[in-house]
Amino acid sequence: MTELGRSLYYEPGFGYVNDPEDVFEYDYTDYKFEEEIEKEIPCSPPREVANGETIVWGEGLLLEYRCKPDFFPVGITHGACDLSTGRWTIEPPVCAESGCPELTAPTHGVVNLDVSGGIATFVCRQGYFMLGDETLVCEQGQWKGIFPLCAVTAQPNKRTKTRKKKSRKGSSKGKEFSLELSDETCFYNAVPPPVIPNAVVNTEYQMNRWLQRYVMVATYSCMGGFRLRDPANTQLFCRSLVWGADVWPDCIAEDDLCEIDNGGCDHFCTPQGKNRYACSCNKGYNLASDAKTCKVVVVVVVVVVVVVVLL
Description:
- The protein is mainly beta.
- The protein contains two helices and 26 strands.
- It has four domains: 1-36, no CATH class; 52-96; 109-249, no CATH class; 257-296, Ribbon (Laminin).
- It has helices at 158-162, 185-188, and strands at 7-11, 15-17, 24-27, 52-57, 62-67, 72-74, 78-82, 87-88, 94-96, 109-113, 119-124, 129-131, 135-139, 142-144, 149-151, 170-171, 199-208, 213-222, 226-228, 235-239, 242-244, 251-253, 268-271, 277-280, 285-287, 294-296.
- It is found in: Virion.
């Protein structure tokens, strides 16, 4: 191997030689051979995945996502740490499962299920564009995502779509909410409908005739064993990044009649099984003959006077 700083000579047909006669000289003394080593940037802990586990190995350079039993991954499961940027090369996959309710294709659209039944993909027919998610994933017996609509008359509101997000968004009770007052802010800013206990939410699109465009509405139905307290109140509406309704949907147990006007009991209502309950009263009251009304206990004190006559 040629030493650094040594003069080399090139002779046609012979290559580099040490003989200086009649040859062209190359001097390598000015070349820098030291390799510059870039600074390595370690990756931060990767994001967790729902219904799965995150595994980092190989001295913190390799990443693997695994789904729990009965779940399967949707997306890339193996990645690495890019030391030049300090970022992982993959995003977390989604751990999906089968067993979700059957889906109906949107009007003017088609829905396709994969072989597992855990991923639904939607496509709109020619001449229509999609509002909502193209793909829904089955998770814990519910479809996760925004059910799409294939629309032809609605057009995206560019001003709303590009507006800055407010620092506070979510759900709020006590404000005025209705279809006529609804807007598209929750859709364009990806604000999901709130979770209501024992309820399943399904997003759909209804025409706001005042805005002359479709807006997203959240419709709730109760899980098995529960029913709506008021069947007339099933929806929440979005207004300025906030979901709400004048009266929110509420799911109560089917056999818990005490949830409705306290079962008609004056004081206490105790469930006794399916479609059965019993009323009881506070101390100092007795249950009336109708088994619901509580009446004050009347205490009658009888004083017996015994007169002893001493003879």
